[in-house]
Amino acid sequence: MTVTVNPAIDLTVYTDSLQIGEINAVESMRKDSGGKGINVSKVLKNLDVLTVATGFLAGEAGCWIRDELKNKSISHDFLETSGETRTNVKIIASDVETQLNGSGPELTETDINRLIEKLNDLLQDGDGLILAGSLPKQTDPGMYRQIIQSLKNQVFVAVDTSGAALAETIEARPHFLKPNEEELNQLFDTALETETEIIDAAYKLREKGVEIVLISRGEKGSIMVSAAGTCKAIPPVITPVSTIGAGDSTVAGFVSKYLQTKDLIRSLRFANACGVATTLKPGSQVCSRIEVENMLDQIQLDCER
Ligand SMILES: Nc1ncnc2c1ncn2[C@@H]1O[C@H](COP(=O)(O)OP(=O)(O)OP(=O)(O)O)[C@@H](O)[C@H]1O
Ligand SMILES: O=P(O)(O)OC[C@@]1(O)O[C@H](CO)[C@@H](O)[C@@H]1O
């Protein structure tokens, strides 16, 4: 199951150049249902992995997302909440991405309890749960921690979030975390510059009880620290069309492959193939199974125990 507590309509605008304070011509524009968990669900659907997307939707934007998920045949079971689901504007000007992300409608303690009840109704022993994305402003940063600690069944928990929510989540010892470099820097309140510093930080998270730490690093690929030691995945040099959803594709790829095979290194390769394949798609569109399969051989691995 994927959980997106703060989904978004992603409005991606392509322009030749972006001059702040001027009128800029739009080349093309696209509108997608977004939010990290929803993107993960889209990838899982493309990979033929059964999943249900849940979380909260509100207002007209929420209805639009629900319709879009229905049209794309993505199984979903969202809770309705008050306010309006956010719209996030992504501007791609001469290959440089600028994002304007909304904060989303506030969630109350009652909302959190409704979600916990739904998760406990739907999740079975051995299932995977992916909690992905930021929490709306003014929502308890301990929400993911609270959800994980309230799970009744034996579920593999993966989390991709940032800021205070990430810091609090670690206390609940999720099985899998995928911070990017910026999120890791924020978490450790420092600029981790060398690979050694990044790897040391990942080991600190392992010491706190996170089984698998996968740090995504954009064009530099990713580093995984787990029971298999330290493993680097290096992607091919490509020209991305849009990197939106690359991290979500990485999460979807890792969790689906790991739950099928329990093979950490194979899952890392597959995760990176998903991430790279998504960077070659416009807007918030995500990789297809065939695109991922074609990418697998191009991911180099460098592992040491
Ligand atoms: N420019 C790129 N070239 C090659 N591979 C890339 C590039 N950008 C992303 N990737 C692949 O996608 C993975 C995830 O990307 P990234 O680290 O940018 O995730 P993220 O910051 O979580 O993204 P988002 O939040 O937009 O989903 C990388 O580990 C890498 O495998
Ligand atoms: O504010 P968050 O939840 O961190 O990020 C939201 C978001 O940028 O993430 C997805 C790409 O990963 C987009 O679909 C969405 O707009």
Automatic annotation (TrEMBL):
Pfam families associated with the record: PfkB
Molecular function terms from GO: 1-phosphofructokinase activity
Domain Carbohydrate kinase PfkB: 9-288
Pathway listed: Carbohydrate metabolism; D-tagatose 6-phosphate degradation; D-glyceraldehyde 3-phosphate and glycerone phosphate from D-tagatose 6-phosphate: step 1/2
Keyword set includes Lipoprotein: no
Enzyme Commission number(s) from the entry: 2.7.1.144
Keyword Secreted on entry: no
Highest taxon listed in the record's lineage: Bacteria
Keywords (A to Z) from UniProt: ATP-binding, Kinase, Lactose metabolism, Nucleotide-binding, Transferase
Family: Belongs to the carbohydrate kinase PfkB family. LacC subfamily. Belongs to the carbohydrate kinase pfkB family.
Function, as annotated: Catalyzes the ATP-dependent phosphorylation of fructose-l-phosphate to fructose-l,6-bisphosphate.
Protein name per UniProt: Tagatose-6-phosphate kinase
Organism: Fodinisporobacter ferrooxydans
